[in-house]
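User: Structure with iron/sulfur cluster, C-alpha cells only please.
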Amino acid sequence: MKPLELLKHEIDKCVRCGTCRSTCPTTKVLGVETASPRGRVSLVSAFSKGEIGLSETYLKHLRECTLCGACRTNCPNYVDTVSIFAAARAEAVEKQGVPLAASLAFRGLKDSGGIVGIGLKIASRLQGLLFKDASAGPGLVSRFSLPLVGNGRLVPPLAKTFFLDLPEIKSLSGAGEGNRPRVAFYAGCGVNYLMPWVGTKSIELIKRAGAWVEVPGGQACCGMPAYAMGDLASAREMALKNLEALESSGADFIATSCATCGHGLKAIMPELLSDDPALKLRAEKVASRIRDISELLLNELGFRGKGCESGPKTIVTYHDPCHLGRAQGLREEPRELIKMGKGTVLKEMKHPCLCCGLGGGLMYTNY
Ligand code: SF4
Ligand code: SF4
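Assistant:
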C-alpha cells in the first residue's frame, strides 16, 4: 500500500471543484466543508506539507469519513480520494499507535480459534446478562454503560454457535464424485460470529447450483476493519493468514457472502502484501478466484432459481453495499437473485447506493 508521501500527485490532482460534495454521505449529514471529500483532501494536503499537525481536530475530520468511495467514483479528475484518506489514517496510526481496545480486537481477529474467538464464545453465553433486546429496532442495548458500547448503542447479538463451529460445517467433505466445480467458502467475521445462517443458506444455494463446497480452515478476519482504522500491520498479518488458508484450497472459486470481505480479498489483500513481489503475485492469483455469492451463483454456476419455492407475494427492496456495488461493480446480480424468488417483487428504494454509515470504522468513532 502506498504511503501518504507517494500520493502527493493524487492530492495535487484535486482542483477543488467540489463535484464530490453532492455525493458524500457525511457532507449530507454534517453539512460543513471539513466533512466533505474536498475539505478532507485539503486537510490531508495541509498536513502533508507540514502546515497543520496531527491534532485531534484533524483526526476527527479524517475519521468521520466512511471510506464509501462515492467521491472517487464521481470525481471528474479521477482523484483516488479513498487511497489518500486510508494512507492519512495509516500515517496517523504509525505516529500515534493503535487505540488499546482496537489493537486487542485486531490481535484476536487474526485467528478465529484464538483468544478473541474463545472470548466471543463466552460472551455469546453471557450476553443476556449484559444486554437486553432493544425497543428501538433489531439488536441489543447494554443494561449498563460498558466500555466501547456505552448507553443506547444498538449492537448485533452474537450467534449461539459460530458458523465455523457448526457440526454441518465441520463435517463438510468438499469434493466428491463427478466433474462439478469446486467452491471454497470464506466466512468472514459477520457470518461467523453474527449471522451463521447467511453462511449455511449460501452453502445450500451453492450446492443447489451444482458445485461441491468446502470451508477451508485457518481463516482470519478479512482485515478491512484494521485497514480502515489505519492499522496496516494487523491488516497485513490477516491478509497473509488468509492467503495461506485460501491458497491451499485447490477450489475453482472462493465465495463470500460479505461485500466487505469480497472487496478486501479481491483488491486490498494484494495491496497489503505488495511490499513483497512474490507474495503480491500469490495474493493476486488467489484474488482472481474470489467471487461474491451473487456473482458466483449467476455468472459462474448459471443458477436460475432451481428449487425456489412459491410463497406469498412479498415486496423486497435492496440496498447496494458500497463494497459490492461501487467497489466490485455488482449491482444487477443481487437484484436478479431477489427476482428469482417466486412471489417476490423487487421495489427500488430511494438512493440505494447511499452508504449505510457502517464503513471506515465510523460506527465506533462516531455512533
Ligand atoms: S476530489 Fe475531485 S471532485 Fe472533489 S474537489 Fe477534488 S477534483 Fe473536485
Ligand atoms: S469516501 Fe465517502 S464519506 Fe469519505 S469523503 Fe468520500 S464520499 Fe465522503
